[in-house]
């Protein structure tokens, strides 16, 4: 089973944004060392606990600090941008780092309404135009992708020998069917969805229309997971993320990811306790063997080609160790057979 990393660059309560971004670089390096297939960094706006607002600034640094792992945005929020500029950016990266660049494509605002308006006064209009925006982007990445457009003769320079690989990210039937229609790979965000993901992923596979000979549907399943040496340790480490998620919903998460001690001391009423339990159900928390079994179960359930893991902890070393334990249990074990 292929494993990958989705990094939201969380800022802990004792960190600066610079600290968090430095830790993102370290995570990519460690992910490569552990054998993860790809590292994606998210795009968020006006969210005080998350440091990454501009993946295209971080990715050149991460590319220079790593050698093999595939890298990309998870995702570039396309309604904010002109496809031609996005193509130039990621063609440049694919030229600098051959056969290592992905473009995760998303349509979400990624932040507050105020931030959305500050970034674009045409966001909703562009959301509705998303199919055309992606087609335009694909044309600039793959020159043979058909496009009847005023910009059809433009070239997004430089032209890399191997184009960046596009992935459409989503949680809905609409996104799945669009990815299938365009014949591109699909990433289902299970960690942020309450929907019937199996049905959505199957719809994508059934409706897939290859654009070139040999094209097949490809699926990444994104999940939230925390692994510890023991189940008890994992539960303790995960509490920071759970309490922070609750705080954000209540508008109190500006202090960053709380420490384990801070999380344990956070007062919860009955309704909040129930909410924490609900949040916990969307996560995979456990010992290496428990996490491995749950990930294998999900892979079989969704028939996913790859599992992408997002892990948020207070201490950076706990996050890196979580990824390491999962890799030892799944990647190393597979390699030894």
UniProtKB/TrEMBL annotation:
Pfam families for this protein: Bac_luciferase (PF00296)
GO MF terms held by the record: oxidoreductase activity, acting on paired donors, with incorporation or reduction of molecular oxygen
Ranges where the Luciferase-like domain occurs: 1-299
A GO-annotated cellular component: cytosol
SUPFAM superfamilies referenced in this protein's UniProt entry, alphabetically: Bacterial luciferase-like (SSF51679)
Protein family (similarity comment): To bacterial alkanal monooxygenase alpha and beta chains.
Protein name: LLM class flavin-dependent oxidoreductase
Species for this entry: Niallia nealsonii
High-level lineage: Bacteria, Bacillati, Bacillota, Bacilli, Bacillales
């Amino acid at each position: 089973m292929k494993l990958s990393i989705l990094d939201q660059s969380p800022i802990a309560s004792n960190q600066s944004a610079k600290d968090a971004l430095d830790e993102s670089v370290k995570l990519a390096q460690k992910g490569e060392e552990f054998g993860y297939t790809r590292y994606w960094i998210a795009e968020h706006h006006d969210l005080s606990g998350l440091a990454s607002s501009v993946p295209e600034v971080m990715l050149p640094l991460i590319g220079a600090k790593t050698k093999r792992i595939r890298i990309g945005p998870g995702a570039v929020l396309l309604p904010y941008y002109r496809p031609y500029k996005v193509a130039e950016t990621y063609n440049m990266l694919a030229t600098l780092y051959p056969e290592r660049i992905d473009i995760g494509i998303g349509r979400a605002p990624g932040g507050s309404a105020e931030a959305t308006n500050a970034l674009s006064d045409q966001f909703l209009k562009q959301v509705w135009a998303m199919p055309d925006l992606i087609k335009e982007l694909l044309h600039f990445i793959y020159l043979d992708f058909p496009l009847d457009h005023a910009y059809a003769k433009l070239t997004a320079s430089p032209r890399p020998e191997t184009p960046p690989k596009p992935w459409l990210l989503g949680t809905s039937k609409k996104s799945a069917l669009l990815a299938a229609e365009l014949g591109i790979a699909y990433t289902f965000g299970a960690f942020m969805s309450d929907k019937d993901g199996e049905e959505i992923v199957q719809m994508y596979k059934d409706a897939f229309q290859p654009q070139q000979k040999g094209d097949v549907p490809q699926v990444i399943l994104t999940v939230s997971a925390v692994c510890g040496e023991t189940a008890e340790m994992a539960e303790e480490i995960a509490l920071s993320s759970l309490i922070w998620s609750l705080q954000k919903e209540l508008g109190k998460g500006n202090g960053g990811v709380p420490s384990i001690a801070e999380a344990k001391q956070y007062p919860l009423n009955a309704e909040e306790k129930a909410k924490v339990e609900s949040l916990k159900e969307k996560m995979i928390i456990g010992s290496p063997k428990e996490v491995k079994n749950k990930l294998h179960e999900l892979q079989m359930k969704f028939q996913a080609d790859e599992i992408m893991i997002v892990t948020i902890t207070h201490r950076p070393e706990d996050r890196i160790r979580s990824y390491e334990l999962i890799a030892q249990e799944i990647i190393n074990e597979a390699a030894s057979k």
